[in-house]
Amino acid sequence: MKIKITLGHQIHTATLEDNPSTQALLKQLPLSPPAENYGGIEKIAYLPQKLPDSPNHNGNFAPNAGDVTYYAPWGNLALFYGSTNPANGLVYLGRFDGEFKPLVTANQITIERIE
User: Fold this and answer.
1) CA separation for the pair 29, 79 (Å, rounded)
2) Residue 24, CB half-sphere, CA atoms under 13 Å: how many?
3) Where is pLDDT greater, at 114 or 99?
4) CA angle 91-97-103, nearest 5°?
5) How many whole angstroms separate alpha carbon 49 and alpha carbon 107?
6) Torsion sign over Cα 11, 107, 70, 24
7) Domain locations along the chain
8) Domain 2-113: assigned CATH number
9) Which SUPFAM superfamilies match (predicted)?
10) What digits encode the pLDDT tens for the residues 16-47?
């Protein structure tokens, strides 16, 4: 499953896993939430609705630069431009297909389905 992620005027794509979390995310698209820097390694953006609980919401996931994730406790997307230690409640959704460096300066993110 592919999504289009627009960062400023640059268009990128990401490939998502096929799981209940990504299916719920796709139902909320398109989205254009404000993006906030968090921890110097990720951009976070809050969803209109939290994604439903699933077994993988309780696991520990260690994100890498380019990962698209969901942080279940806060109900936000977390798009990583750096790597960090495992975080409880962080759910892997997918990965940027190519360049993700524009995340560093993005203040607005637009996420759309690719049909």
Assistant:
1) 16
2) 17
3) 114
4) 70
5) 20
6) negative
7) 2-113
8) 2.40.100.20
9) Cyclophilin-like (SSF50891)
10) 999 888 999 999 999 999 999 999 999 999 99
